[in-house]
Structures are given as structure tokens and as C-alpha cells.
Amino acid sequence: MSRRFPYFLVILLTLGACSNMQIDDFSGTSPELKPEEYFAGRTKAWGIFEDRFGNLKREFIVDIEGEWDGTTLTLTEDFDYSDGEQDQRIWRITRTGDGLYEGRADDVVGVARGVARGKALNWSYDLMLKVGDNTVKVRFDDWMFLQPGGVMINKAEVSKFGITIGTVTLFFAKDTVDQTGSSGGRKTAA
After folding, report:
1. How crowded is the C-beta side of 69, counted as CA atoms within 13 Å?
2. How far apart are CA 116 and CA 103, in angstroms?
3. How far, CA to CA in Å, does 78 sit from each of 43, 71, 105, 141, 188?
4. pTM (2 d.p.)
5. How many helices (H) and strands (E) does the chain have?
6. Which fold has domain 21-174?
7. Which helix H or strand E contains 107, and what residues bound it?
8. CA-CA distance, 127 to 158, in Å (whole number)?
9. Structure-derived torsion over alpha carbons of residues 168, 87, 173, 175, reported in degrees to the nearest 10
């Protein structure tokens, strides 16, 4: 019996890590999330990265400019990290069907795929993540939830070889009033 315990423990831990959440569980919920509408114009996000043990590793602010031309949503994301690092990602996202999306960016490997139902969007992709002087290929499994009042909550599991290495949590809000009192440009992270 004692030789079976480690195998039982591994199976139990693996099953405990599986999410039962399905995108279709959110069909008919509101407010309805349509990325091409939500991200048109200016949006601001505040985020954190926690390692797999729950330790806060990074904080950042993102200024997002979105342009929807009827076919492609172009998102220019300017990241300001609390350690002074700055980065930019430009997404080109197309709607491929009813609530179906594909996205591309320079640091995304292949094509990102998203499905929106009701207030939720599940977005999955591989990303070449900068870690110091190196880049590491990691998998992002994003869940975005639009809230009343235009706030959106995003929680992303970051994994490598199927093992969770951390979690990114972001809060988005439409940027109708510049939080720093200036008229655009990059902001300094808190």
C-alpha cells in the first residue's frame, strides 16, 4: 500500500489542478464582451505576476490604444513595470466567426485563439517571454470577465511543459480620464 501512495498523490494533485470552467458556461451572461467594441479607443490595465507559490514577482501598468477597422482590431499595448522596464506588444486580432477570434503579435508563437461567450473570453497562446537576457516559450491561458461599469478582470495561467509557473492578474478600465493628469504618452508604474 505504501508504494501506491506516491502515484495516488500525483493523480490527486493533477486532478486538483484541472479547471472545470468551460466558455459555454457563460453563454447568455451580461454584460456581453465583444473585444472589438471593448478595446476600441483607450483602455488602461493594472496587473501583477505571481509565481506558482503565490509570491508577488512583478507589478505593471498597461496603456492600450485600440483601433477596430471593421475587420482587424489593432491593440498597441505599452507596458510600464515597477522595476523601470518598458515593453510594447502590438496585437492584430480578427473575428473569425460568432465569438471566435484569432490574434497575432511579434512575440506570440503561431496564432492566439479566443472564444467569447456572454461576459467571458477565453484566450490561449504561446508567448516568447523575456526573462532577463533570455526568452522562454510559455503558454498563456487567459480568462477575461467583463463587469458592470466597464471594468474587466483578467486571470491568466502561465505554464511551461504543462506545469503552471505563475499567474497574471489584470484589471482593465476604459481610460476616459488620464490618471496622471497628462494628455497621453507612457505613464510611470506604481
Report:
1. 7
2. 13
3. 11, 23, 13, 21, 11
4. 0.81
5. 2, 10
6. Lipocalin (2.40.128)
7. none
8. 10
9. 170
Separation of alpha carbons 114 and 152, rounded Å: 16
Q: Other C-beta atoms within 10 Å of 32: how many? A: 16
Looking at residue 92, its amino acid is R
**138 - beta bridge partners?**
127
Beta carbons within 8 Å of 189's beta carbon, 6+ residues apart: 59, 60, 61, 80, 81, 82, 84
Query: Which of 136, 134, 96, 137 lies closest to 113, judged by CA?
Result: 96
**Alpha carbons 146 and 134: distance in angstroms, whole number:** 34
pLDDT tens for each residue of 49-93:
999 999 999 999 999 999 999 999 999 999 999 999 999 999 999
Cell of 112: 492566439
Distance between alpha carbon 8 and the CA centroid of its chain, in Å?
Answer: 33
Instruction: Enter the C-alpha cell of residue 159.
Output: 505554464
* Phi, psi angles (nearest 5°) of residue 118: 55, -125
Grid cell 477565453 in the structure block, residue = 122
